[in-house]
């Protein structure tokens, strides 16, 4: 082996970098990019949505914490935000129900005067072998993950256009961040409804971005890979499952919800003012076809 070749026993193979423990993930401070820019996050009472709500607040935003069940968890997120000196309001709404989404946006504007940032995060899985999948399982996933994002984006655009550009606050009239998934690109057997919903999010996001760019409304997506949240506990909660998951993740660690929050905050900020219609993959390389690193 020459000196320039990577050693197969580098410290990147050390056990602590392969452990499921959360504390190995890097932590990065937030900068006050978003002061004066009220935000709404759907599904903000747990998992990625909770981390995004807290990240936006750390970056200076007041936050509407949307939830559909478990009001106590939404209140707990609000309390954390208020403790940072920001405002927070929990609003219950099922994103797949038009009247509830319209009412939520009206309450949000009443509370904060306007919204500058909307993060369409609420999503779920109803997994099944394809030939066993019921129409209810299909419809549930499409209605929350795709129709819910349509309804929230439409209400967001209506509010951004009503208020118009306010250059003292932001270079854009409004920012929408759609929560997609690596499965907008990676086919996923056993999860056909979920992959179809995220593939739909991708072209819906790009089409809205194209149509709304002249209004200075930016629309982007974050596509998480395997992130440590309740939606995929089975994929990381035992050492065997974690080891198997890592065969799909070249960066060799599971993602943490804060990895996603950092990306959302950047996309929502003026630091990303020339970025629209983009999907930012935050996946430790899951979309890099890791099987081809030795084969092919
Ligand atoms: C899914 C998770 C899954 C991950 C990577 C996400 O979109 O919600 O369940 O672990 O993609 O496959």
Q: What's the CATH class label?
A: Alpha Beta
Q: Widest sheet: strand order?
A: 3-2-1-4-5-6-7
Largest sheet: 7 strands, parallel
Question: Could you give the order of the helices and strands?
Answer: EHEHEHEHEHEHHE
Describe the model.
The chain has 296 residues and is an alpha/beta fold. It has a single domain (31-228, 256-283), classed as 3-Layer(aba) Sandwich (Rossmann fold), CATH 3.40.50.720. 37% of the residues lie in helices and 12% in strands. The protein has 7 helices and 7 strands. The protein has helices at 47-58, 71-83, 98-112, 135-163, 192-212, 239-246, 257-268; strands at 39-41, 63-67, 88-92, 117-120, 174-179, 217-224, 279-282. The protein has a 7-stranded parallel β-sheet with strand order 3-2-1-4-5-6-7, sandwiched between helices. It starts with 38 loop residues before the first strand and ends in a 14-residue tail after the last strand. Bound molecules: beta-D-glucopyranose. Beta-D-glucopyranose binds next to loops. Beta-D-glucopyranose is lined by residues 125, 181-183, 224-226, 231-232, 235.
